[in-house]
Amino acid sequence: MTMISHILAANSLITAFAAVGILMWISGAISKYLTFGRIHGSAIAIMLGLVLAFFGGIATGGEKGVADLPALTGIGLMGGAMLRDFAIVATAFEVDVVHARKAGLIGAVALGLGTVVPFILGVFVAAAFGYTDAESLTTIGAGAVTYIVGPVTGAAIGASSPVIALSIATGVFKAVIVMIGTPFVAKMIGLDNPRSAMVFGGLMGTVSGVSGGLAATDRRLVPYGALTATFHTGLGCLVAPSILYFAVRAITGG
Amino acid sequence: MTISGVALLAICTLLGSLLGDLLGVALGVKANVGGVGIAMMFLIAARLWLVRWGLLSRGLNTGVEFWGSFYIPIVVAMAAQQNVVAAAKGGPIVVIAGAGAVAVCFAMVALIGRFSGPVETMDEIEAREALEASVPHFKSGRVG
């Protein structure tokens, strides 16, 4: 037993790869058999991650979720700011500028609104719950944009870990509602053509939420929605820790 | 070479965070201002440049795409190391902000759709394409 824990601790990053991989297998199975593909495996995996962090935090009394367990310190490195930013930047490689032009003006408008409107809403909700400092307000607002923009913004402007956890949870919750709710409101919001799918992708953000929601509505719409949604995170990571943060700072006077 | 892709990604990420920090200093805040977003723009520009000069090799692609495909697992690891116990005390904020954001965005999809006039639905497009596809087939048939 001590030998196993020694090996796990000595190879912490490798252990983290294995642990996250197993978590993603379980999530994939839950997605397939319990939700019939309605909720993406990735969203379930992130939620499970948050749940594990909760129990890890209770078990160790620490502040870094499961990363406080000696065998799982590698999770801290794997999910730390360094590798996270590295992987997020890499996703930009798949952005096709030629395709981006197809989305055109309406896609750009949707993207802009899809970043600013949820942000403002998130800031107001955070303010209503008693947060007053610009860093927390901005991070929770950014979490309402997507679960990536939240932590990236929080780390960049120096928000606290509980606030970052809140912003991730907000973003994941949003993605899950988009996945489940889209088929029910599709008719009401006119989601039956490529253009509205592109507008939808730009406004909703999260690629997993958009592709999951559209797939349940009409599979043919998925590429159009994903097309604008792929720009959402990049745009959010660009404006949330800069322009939007300064706007919040100017208003709070902090 | 795979390492060229990883190196390109690393250089873009480093440049982005450097510029983000510099911007923070210039603007007088203790923060990295949009570093990740700037790095993404560098990477998009680099890709365009590589494609134009025919330098985008398969190995280079692999190097970057591996890390891109690693993004969700890394986000899962990130979620697993947050201070959720402290965040749980702020519970309802998650539900209200998340649900509110979705509701407002659904409404905006409907509004933009209404204001920008009618367009062909997916069913209409497929019907038209099926019709167009059947026309040349018919001509090349026994007519001539």
Automatic annotation (TrEMBL), chain A:
<feature type="transmembrane region" description="Helical">
    <location>
        <begin position="71"/>
        <end position="93"/>
    </location>
</feature>
<keyword id="KW-0812">Transmembrane</keyword>
<dbReference type="InterPro" id="IPR004691">
    <property type="entry name" value="Mal/Na_symporter_MadM"/>
</dbReference>
<keyword id="KW-1133">Transmembrane helix</keyword>
<dbReference type="Pfam" id="PF03818">
    <property type="entry name" value="MadM"/>
</dbReference>
<keyword id="KW-0472">Membrane</keyword>
<feature type="domain" description="Malonate/sodium symporter MadM subunit N-terminal">
    <location>
        <begin position="5"/>
        <end position="251"/>
    </location>
</feature>
<feature type="transmembrane region" description="Helical">
    <location>
        <begin position="222"/>
        <end position="248"/>
    </location>
</feature>
<feature type="transmembrane region" description="Helical">
    <location>
        <begin position="39"/>
        <end position="59"/>
    </location>
</feature>
<feature type="transmembrane region" description="Helical">
    <location>
        <begin position="7"/>
        <end position="27"/>
    </location>
</feature>
<dbReference type="GO" id="GO:0044668">
    <property type="term" value="F:sodium:malonate symporter activity"/>
</dbReference>
<feature type="transmembrane region" description="Helical">
    <location>
        <begin position="197"/>
        <end position="216"/>
    </location>
</feature>
<feature type="transmembrane region" description="Helical">
    <location>
        <begin position="105"/>
        <end position="130"/>
    </location>
</feature>
<dbReference type="InterPro" id="IPR018402">
    <property type="entry name" value="Mal/Na_symporter_MadM_N"/>
</dbReference>
<feature type="transmembrane region" description="Helical">
    <location>
        <begin position="163"/>
        <end position="185"/>
    </location>
</feature>
<feature type="transmembrane region" description="Helical">
    <location>
        <begin position="137"/>
        <end position="157"/>
    </location>
</feature>
<protein>
    <submittedName>
        <fullName>Malonate transporter subunit MadM</fullName>
    </submittedName>
</protein>
From TrEMBL, chain B:
<keyword id="KW-0472">Membrane</keyword>
<keyword id="KW-0812">Transmembrane</keyword>
<dbReference type="InterPro" id="IPR004690">
    <property type="entry name" value="Maln_transptMadL"/>
</dbReference>
<dbReference type="Pfam" id="PF03817">
    <property type="entry name" value="MadL"/>
</dbReference>
<feature type="transmembrane region" description="Helical">
    <location>
        <begin position="30"/>
        <end position="50"/>
    </location>
</feature>
<dbReference type="GO" id="GO:0016020">
    <property type="term" value="C:membrane"/>
</dbReference>
<protein>
    <submittedName>
        <fullName>Malonate transporter subunit MadL</fullName>
    </submittedName>
</protein>
<keyword id="KW-1133">Transmembrane helix</keyword>
<feature type="transmembrane region" description="Helical">
    <location>
        <begin position="93"/>
        <end position="112"/>
    </location>
</feature>
<feature type="transmembrane region" description="Helical">
    <location>
        <begin position="62"/>
        <end position="81"/>
    </location>
</feature>
